[in-house]
Amino acid sequence: MKRNTLTAAFLLSAALLSSCNKAEQISRDGSGKPASSSVEKETVAPVTEEPAGSAIPEEERETLPEHPEEKTEETEPLTELPTEPETEFTGDYVHGTEGYFCLADNSVDVELKLQRGGTCWAFASATAMENSFFLNTGRRTDIDPNEVVNRVYGDDKAEGIFLNGMHTAEYNGGCWEIVADCYSSGVNGVYVNEAIEVDMYDIDAVKESIRKYGGVIGAIYDSAGKRQYSHGYLTFNDTKEKEANHELLIIGWDDHFPKSYFKKKAEQDGAWIAYNSNIGEFGYYYISYDSYFENMSVISATDKYSGCESYSADSFFGKKIDTGKETALANVFHRTGTLAAVGTISRKSEQNIKIEVYAPSFKELVYTQEACLKGYGWHTVELDQPLSVTDYAVVIRYEGPAVVETEWKSDASEYRAQMERGQSFVMSGGKWLDLADPDTADRLGLSFEPKNCCIKAYYK
Fold first, then answer.
1. Is a pLDDT exceeding 90 seen at residue 198?
2. Which residue in 273, 259, 278 sits closest to 106, CA to CA?
């Protein structure tokens, strides 16, 4: 399966499960180097999950791939640390300050939680949100990855993703996008205000994102056969372009990490330092710069909002409406308060938008602001001037196509959406059409049934 089929694979088939490593414990000593530890750990052996963490096809990312063939990749459990091989590098390596950075050494408390089942996606995303929340607020918050799984797949909701019984929530797999969708509406006072892809081929951009967001989520094909315990470090190097089966969180880098420390000798020195929930408190993963990643992304979380109004629970896997050079969508909300920000999704690397706030009749324009959304993913635009609102319409004019939610169904799960008249609208021929009107899809020439617009209103 190629890169552009990865995230959709979890939607269309959640059958890729594999046994994984139950490792000897590895903890970090004062030098930042893994060392043996005697702390007692759970005996549950984590399982690597089906493909996780990539994005929808880059060419406008509109359609989901067909159901992939089911297959299982076995990962040999790591029950003991292997004997260290002889290497060209003599002596134990200790990093210096030049070309080295790790969040754990810079006041960010990275809790190395151990996953259960196929939940790496939830652990990587939860830790990313915790780290970014600390960087954004100066305060720590605890986000339970198991609660993330329950919120994404639980039945106690009106709309969202529902499982059909093929897999339990713990083993259905997932990806960072569905976590961002869930938390962008706010959970326990925590709001995802940004969740975008990172150019995985731009090392400097990845490093900058680690510093700015508190980590970069990466998707790899995690295999015990590519690991090596070398000079006290648990290392990994796999250059083959394989479909990923595991998400982890990159929290640092070491440009001088010896290339000889990997089971497959790397072409260059240097490694990403990662939190791997398959290993948990056993230590950090040192992944060669040569290794292949399916996808990299960041998630930013904050507590700056008091509430959110939204009709859509799925933004990343919706479909696009394209009315030409500009596509105008609108949601009408009814809540008294101070409107502080507007959120939406972009499927382009860069997309200009214009935000307008109207009276609910769309006849009285009360506010306008332009913005440029940079990066595929979820964006929140802070209003330059917060507005006192009660009944109002948020209009977003997108340069090119715009995304609306739509229902979908797969072998393992389905997305259900609820919609009422008077909630979401699209501009066509100079008139606002209600997306709940059965004739709207035909008038727009759509091959799918559109649901609500992916527009959210955030309150101060």
1. yes
2. 273
- pLDDT, tens only, 418-452: 999 999 999 999 999 999 999 999 999 999 999 99
Task: Count how many Cα atoms sit within 13 Å of the Cα of residue 158 in the half-sphere of its side chain.
Answer: 6
Q: Of 51-65, 104-118, 366-380, where does mean pLDDT reach its minimum?
A: 51-65
Q: Is the pLDDT of residue 80 over 80?
A: no
**Residue 391 one-letter amino acid:** D
Q: Are 311 and 408 in contact (CB under 8 A)?
A: no
pLDDT reading at 75 higher than 80: no
Exposed/middle/buried for 4, CB within 10 Å: 0-12, 13-18, 19+? Answer: middle
**Which CB contacts under 8 angstroms, 24+ apart, belong to 136-143?**
136/300, 136/301, 136/302, 137/302, 137/303, 140/109, 141/190, 141/301, 141/303, 143/190
Which whole-number Å values give the CA distances from 198 to 101, 125, 201, 248, 417, in the listed order? 18, 15, 9, 14, 29
Domains plus CATH for the chain? 3-298 (3.90.70.10), 306-459 (2.60.120)
Q: What is the DSSP annotation of 17-38? A: -EE---PPPEEE-TTS-EEE--
Burial 255-283 (b: 16+ CB within 10 A, else e): bebbbbbbbbebeebbbbbbbbbbbbbbb
Whether pTM > 0.85 for this model: the answer is no
Burial status of residue 100 (CB atoms within 10 A of its CB: 0-12, 13-18, 19 or more) = middle
Bridge-based pairing state of the strands 233-236 and 284-288: parallel
Percent of all residues in the chain with a pLDDT value above 70, rounded to a whole number:
80
Distances (CA, A) of 159 to 38, 50, 265, 334, 441: 46, 24, 49, 20, 21
Give the CA count within 13 Å in the CB-facing half-sphere of 116. 13
Q: Do the strands 216-220 and 246-254 form a parallel or antiparallel pair, or are they unpaired? A: antiparallel
Q: Give yes or no for a contact between 185 and 314, defined as CB atoms under 8 angstroms apart.
A: no
The answer to whether residues 82 and 32 touch, using CB atoms and an 8 Å cutoff, is no
* Helix H or strand E encompassing 296: strand 295-302
Q: In terms of Cα–Cα distance, which of 307, 309, 251 is closest to 454?
A: 309
Using CA atoms, how far residue 45 sits from 78, 133, 167, 234, in Å, is 10, 30, 18, 18
